[in-house]
Write a structure and sequence with these properties.
The structure is a homodimer. Chain A is of the alpha+beta class. The first copy, chain A, contains 24 helices and eleven strands. Chains A, B: Its cofactor is FAD.
C-alpha cells in the first residue's frame, strides 16, 4: 500500500474553480478509485510520458496545412525513437502496454497510427513470418534508417483477402519473384506510411510457381524507396491517397508494381518457401495450429483498438461532463439558474457514456493482460478471434455514439474546433473500418457462436480459456431464469444483470441458429444462409455476447475493491452501462418472453433514470479519476479547473482585425478571383 | 401533362456504366416518380441554377486554407446578388423556395448559411420588427452595400433568452441608447457574418428606461463596422469565433459593447417604443396574438432546416447506394463476387435511410407550402411551433444517424475527404444545435401536447389548422385499436401503420401526462416536474408525434399517384421508413400492451427485412430519381456513371513525388523544427 502523504503527492488536488462545488458532492474518495484502476507505477510512467511530450518542441508544433501536418508527423516518427518513454520496459507491467498507446493516442492519434504501422504491423510481420535472414530489417526500423509499411488491402478488395490480385511469380533463372499489379483495382492502397515515407513494405501477393500453379497469398518484404533520396525504385508506382476525413498525419498511400523484380529472399519464408528451382515447399507440420496462431496475431491489433477507443471515450466524457457542471441554463421559477447536469435529459445523455468509460477501461486493460498470459492455451486463437471481432466493433460503434452525443451536449461552444470533439470524431471514425470492417468482423464472431450451439444442445461441456462462453454448459439454469423480482435494488443487482445478459445471449443464439438451419434447408448454401440471418440475430447476438463478457470481466475485477464507497459507485457504474445497453434490446426481452407486461419495462427505464440521478453528484469526481492530463485534453471546455469561459476568452482570435483581403470587397465583383 | 419526348429531353438517360445492371432491374418508371416529386418548372429552374453555379468561377475556386475559404466565401455572398437565379420569382411555385436552398446548400453549405443570415434573419427582423424609417437598411443589403447579422445568443446564454445580459439604457438627454456588455459571459457570440463582414447587426438587449425599469429584451439595429474601411466603430469590440468543426465559410463572430451610443432610431419599434423623454410605450393591442405570430416566424427557420437536412440526406444515400451497387465483395461458394447491396446487412444499413429521403422530401416541401398558405389561421402559430420544434430535431438527428451509417457503409474509400461524407457530417452537425438546441426544442413540443391532453380527457374537440393532432378527438377508436392481423401484407398497410403510430402517441402522451401530474403533486413546481418527465416519455412522445405527422403527410400525397408501379414502390418506401422508426420504440409497444407475445415483434422485424429485400432492386433507380446533379454530388463514389474506381484513379495525387521537405528527414533530428 501507498501511504496517504505519498498518495497526495502522486495525485495532487485539482486546481480550484467552478467544479469545486461538484467535487464536494462526491460520495467516494477518488484517489482510492484511481489506485484501483491504475497502480502507482502506471501513474508515474504516464506522468513522465506526458511531461516528455509536453516539453518536446516537435510534439507542440502548430499544424495548420496538410503538407505541414505531414512534415511534423514525419519528424515525430523519428523523434519517437529518441524519447526514453518510448523504450520503457513494458514487460513488468502490462498496464503500461495500454498506457503508452493511450497517451500517444490522445497527444496525436495520427502519430500513434504511424508508430503502430512502423513498429508493430510491419515489424511483427517481418519478425513473425520471416526467418533469420530478415531480422536486420527490424533493426533498421528501430534505428530510423528504414520506415516500414504493410500492404494487404487493394483498391477492389479489402475484406475478402482471398481475392487479392497482386501477383508474385517465381523466376527460376533470376532466382527471384516478379511482382505485378494486373490493373488499378489490384493496386495496394490505404497503407499507412506508404504515401510518402516508407522505404520498405510487407506485401501480400498470390504466389505463382513457374509451373503456373497459384499457391495462395504469401507475404513478401520489398524495398520500395531509396533510403537516401526517398525516390521510388524503378518498377514501383507509389503515391499518396490524398486528404482524409481524419488522421491526416498518416500518409496512407497506394502502390502498383510494374514487373518489379525482387530477390528470392523477399519471401517471408517461415512457413513456406520456394526452392531455387521453383518448387513450392510447406515448412509447417500442423497448419490448423498455425491458423489459430495467425488468428491470435490478427486479434492483437483489434484489442489495441479497444484501448484507443477507451482513451477517446474518456476524453470525450471528461469534456462533456465538466462542461455540463459549469454551464448553467434555466432554473425553477424565480430561482437561480442551475447546471445543465441537473437535468434528467442531460444526465441521460452523458452518464451512460461516463459509466462505459470505466467499464471499457477495466476491460481493455484486462483483455490485453490475458492476451499476454494465456495465448498458448489450445482454443485460445479461436476464442480471442471471436472476442476481438466483437469487441472492436462494439467499442468503436459505442465511441461514435458517445462522440455524437457529447458533441451535441456541448451545444454551440462544442462546435468550435478547439472544443476537440470534432477532430476526435473524425479520427475515431476510422476505427469502425480498419483492422476489419465492423459488420464483416461481427459475422466472424457469430460463426464462432453458431458452431458451438449444436454442441450445447448435445450437452457437451463448453470450455474455452477466456471463459467468454463457458456459461453455456449450464444451459438449463439460463433458460429457466425468470425476472421474478420487482424492486430497483433487485433489478440492478450484478447477479441479475449478468443473468439477463446470459438469457438474452441464449435466446438470440438459439433464434439465430434456428433461422440459419431453416435457411440452409432452403438454399443449401452456408454463405447465403448466414447472410439471411445477419441483421437482427447474428448482429444483436454478437453485441450481447461481448457485452456480457465485458460486464463479467468488470464485475470480477470490481469484487476486489475493499473500500465501501468506491465499491458502491462502481456498482452503479456497472449497472448503468449494463442496463443502458440492455434497453436497446428490450424488444427481444419482450418477444423472447423474459419480459411480460408493463412492469419490467417500466422498472428497466426507471432504474436507468435513478442510476443517472444517483451518479450525478459523483460525475465530476468520476471524471477527475480517469481524466487525462490537461495537456492531452487540449480543450478549453474540458480542463480540470473548469474555467470554460476564461479559456474561451483567451483563445478567441484578436478583436477588431480586418481580413488581409478586405479591400477586395470594396471593388466591384470580378469574374475571376 | 408533358409528352414523352419532352420528358426525355427534360430528364435524359443517365450515363452508361456499372450501374446499368441495377437500373435495368427497377420495377417502376423513374421519370414518372420524378415528376410526382418535382414539377417541370422546378426541374428546369434547378437545372438553370446548377448551370449558373457550375460555370461561375467564384463558385468553383479550390479552397484549402481557412483564410482562403473565408475570402472566397465573402466573394460568394456578393456574387449571389448578381446571379439571376438568386432573384427567381418564388411567388408562383413554393417548391422553388425549397429548390433554392437545396441547390445552394449542396454547392456550399456555408454559403447558404451566410445567405440566410444576411438576407433572411437580419432582413426579416428589420422588416418585421422595424418601421418605415428602417426600410432603407433592407435595400442596402440587397445592393451589397451593407452586410447584416443577427445577435441574440450570448457566451453564457443560448437557449434561455430571458436571461440575456446585454443592456440598452435610454439616455433622454442624448435621445438614444447606451449599449453595454456587462461582462464576457454577456458578449454576443456565434452570429454568422459578425466575425469579419457585417456592417450592421440586429441586437437583442434588455431595455432600461431612465427610471431604472427593465422592460425585457428588445431588438436594436446598429452599425458595427464602417462600410468603407470594414473597421469597427468606436465602442465596439468585435472578432471571429475561430475555426469550427464545419461550416468554416461562415464567419461566426463575437461582439462586446463598451458604452456604445446609438440614436433612438436604433430601436426596432413596431410593437413598442420609447418616447423622447424616456417613457416606455406598448404599441400593440393583443400581445398574445403577437406572441403567436412571433412563434410562427421563429418556426420558419426551423422548417428551412428540415429542407437542408433532406438535401444532405439525399446526397448521402446517393453516394452510399451507388457505391453499394458498384462495390463487390465475397460471394456464394465458388461463384462470382456479388455487389454488397445484395447482403441483408447492407440493405438494412442503407435502405431505411433511402426511404427516409423520399418521406422527408415530400414532407419538407409540403410543410413549407402549408406555412405560406395557412399562417393566418388562429392556433396556427402554436401548432407550427410544436411541429417545427419536433421536426427540426427529428430531421437533424436522423440525418446524423444516416451520415454515420453511410460513411461506414462506404468503408475505407468512404474515409477519403473526396468521398464527401466527412464534410457533410461536420457541416450537418450544426443543425442539431442552431435555431434551438434539439432537446430544448423537444420540450416545447411536449409542453404543447401536455396542454392538450386534459382537453382530450374532457371530450373536447381538438381542432388545429395543420391537423397534426386532431386525431385525438377520436380517442376511443385509437385506444381500442388492436394488432389483430398477422400477415406481412396487413402489417405494412398504411392504414395499420398510421393506427400503430396513433396508438403509440396516445400511450406516450397519457404516460407522460400521468408522470407529470404525479411529479407536480410532489414538487409543486411545473419546471421541475417537466424535467422529471423528459427522457423516456416527453422525448419519445415528440418523436412519435412528429413522425406520425410526417407519415400522414406523405401518405396523403402518395394517394394522388396514378401510376401503379410508382405507387407500389412509394408504399414500400413509406412502410420501410415507418417500421424502421417504430422498431426503435418497440419496448413501448410491448410495455404498453399493443404487442403481446413473440409474434408481433417477429412480424415487425421480418417486415423490415422483406421491405429491404424487395426495395433492393429499385434502390439505384430510386436514388437516380432524387439524386442531385453530379456537380453537386461532388464525390468520386456517387456519380451517376458509377465509375467509382476510374474517378478514384484520376483524382489520386500524382505518384512518385517526394514531399518538398524530404531532405529534413535525412539530417539528424532537431530539437526545433
Amino acid at each position: 500500500m501507498v501511504d496517504s502523504n505519498e498518495i497526495r503527492e502522486l495525485l495532487p488536488e485539482f486546481p480550484a474553480g467552478p467544479l469545486d462545488e461538484f467535487r464536494g458532492k462526491a460520495s467516494f474518495d477518488w484517489r482510492k478509485l484511481k489506485l484501483f484502476l491504475e497502480p502507482k507505477d502506471v501513474i508515474l510512467y504516464k506522468k513522465r510520458f506526458v511531461e516528455a511530450l509536453k516539453t518536446d518542441p516537435i510534439f507542440n508544433e502548430e499544424e495548420t496545412q496538410h503538407d505541414e501536418i505531414r512534415r511534423i508527423s514525419a519528424h515525430k516518427i523519428r523523434r519517437m525513437n529518441e524519447i526514453p518513454e518510448f523504450h520503457a520496459d513494458f514487460s513488468g507491467n502490462l498496464l503500461k502496454l495500454g498506457v503508452f498507446p493511450e497517451v500517444l493516442n490522445l497527444a496525436d492519434p495520427s502519430n500513434l497510427v504511424t508508430f503502430m504501422v512502423n513498429r508493430n504491423l510491419y515489424t511483427s510481420a517481418v519478425e513473425g513470418l520471416g526467418t533469420e535472414k530478415h531480422q536486420h530489417l527490424v533493426k533498421a526500423i528501430e534505428e530510423s534508417k528504414n520506415f516500414g509499411c504493410f500492404c494487404m488491402t487493394e483498391i477492389g478488395h479489402g475484406s475478402d483477402t482471398k481475392r487479392l490480385k497482386t501477383k508474385a511469380t517465381y523466376d527460376a533463372k533470376r532466382r527471384g519473384f516478379v511482382l505485378e499489379t494486373p490493373d488499378f483495382e489490384a493496386a495496394k492502397c490505404w497503407s499507412g506510411l506508404l504515401g510518402q515515407l516508407a522505404t520498405h513494405a510487407v506485401v501480400y501477393a498470390q504466389l505463382y510457381t513457374p509451373d503456373g500453379c497459384c499457391h495462395g497469398f504469401h507475404q513478401f518484404v520489398v524495398q520500395i524507396r531509396d533510403e537516401r533520396t526517398l525516390l521510388p525504385m524503378s518498377g514501383i508506382v507509389v503515391g499518396d491517397m490524398g486528404v482524409k476525413i481524419g488522421l491526416n498525419g498518416v500518409d496512407n498511400g497506394y502502390l502498383l508494381f510494374d514487373k518489379y523484380f525482387v530477390g528470392k529472399e523477399a519471401l517471408l519464408n517461415r512457413y513456406a518457401d520456394v526452392t531455387d528451382d521453383g518448387e513450392y515447399v510447406v515448412l509447417v507440420e500442423d497448419p490448423k495450429r498455425m491458423f489459430g496462431a495467425a488468428l491470435a496475431t490478427l486479434s492483437e491489433g483489434r484489442l489495441k483498438i479497444i484501448s484507443l477507443c477507451t482513451a477517446f471515450l474518456i476524453k470525450a466524457v471528461t469534456i462533456a461532463v465538466r462542461y455540463a457542471a459549469v454551464r448553467k441554463q434555466f432554473g425553477p421559477s424565480n430561482q437561480e439558474e442551475i447546471s445543465i447536469i441537473e437535468y434528467q435529459t442531460h444526465q441521460h445523455r452523458l452518464l451512460p457514456y461516463l459509466s462505459a468509460a470505466f467499464v471499457y477501461k477495466v476491460f481493455s486493460a484486462q483483455i490485453l493482460r490475458k492476451h499476454a498470459s494465456e495465448c498458448s492455451h489450445p482454443g485460445y486463437g479461436y476464442e480471442i478471434h471471436a472476442i476481438s471481432s466483437a469487441a472492436k466493433p462494439v467499442a468503436s460503434w459505442f465511441l461514435m455514439e458517445a462522440l455524437n452525443e457529447c458533441r451535441q451536449a456541448c451545444a454551440g461552444h462544442g462546435y468550435l474546433k478547439s472544443a476537440e470533439l470534432g477532430d476526435l470524431r473524425n479520427d475515431a471514425d476510422a476505427n469502425c473500418t480498419y483492422e476489419g470492417e465492423n459488420h464483416v468482423l461481427n459475422q466472424q464472431t457469430s460463426n464462432f457462436l453458431l458452431k458451438i450451439w449444436p454442441k450445447v444442445l448435445k450437452g457437451e461441456h463448453i470450455d474455452f480459456p477466456l471463459e467468454s462462453i463457458n456459461f453455456l454448459s449450464d444451459i438449463q439454469t439460463i433458460m429457466n431464469f425468470r425476472v421474478n423480482f420487482n424492486s430497483y435494488e433487485e433489478f440492478i443487482h450484478p447477479r441479475h444483470i449478468i443473468d439477463m445478459y446470459r438469457w438474452l445471449t441464449v435466446h438470440l443464439l438459439k433464434a439465430s441458429y434456428d433461422k440459419y438451419e431453416a435457411s440452409m434447408e432452403k438454399t443449401k448454401d452456408a454463405f447465403l444462409s448466414k447472410n439471411d440471418n445477419q441483421v437482427y440475430f447474428s448482429r444483436r447476438l454478437t453485441i450481447i455476447y461481448i457485452n456480457h463478457y465485458i460486464l463479467q470481466t468488470f464485475q470480477r475485477e470490481m469484487s476486489s475493491i475493499t473500500d465501501e464507497n468506491v465499491h458502491e459507485v462502481m456498482r452503479k457504474v456497472f449497472a448503468l452501462y449494463a442496463l443502458f445497453v440492455l434497453e436497446k434490446h428490450i424488444g427481444f426481452l419482450y418477444s423472447g418472453g423474459l419480459f411480460v407486461g408493463g412492469e419490467p419495462g417500466t422498472l428497466l427505464r426507471d432504474s436507468i433514470l435513478r442510476l443517472c440521478h444517483d451518479l450525478k453528484d459523483d460525475a465530476v469526481t468520476l471524471v477527475d479519476t480517469i481524466a487525462p492530463d490537461d495537456y492531452l485534453i487540449n480543450s478549453f471546455m474540458g480542463k480540470s479547473d473548469g474555467k470554460v469561459y476564461e479559456h474561451l476568452q483567451k483563445q478567441l482570435p484578436v478583436p477588431n482585425a480586418r481580413p488581409t483581403w478586405w479591400r477586395e470587397l470594396l471593388t466591384p465583383s470580378q469574374s475571376k478571383l
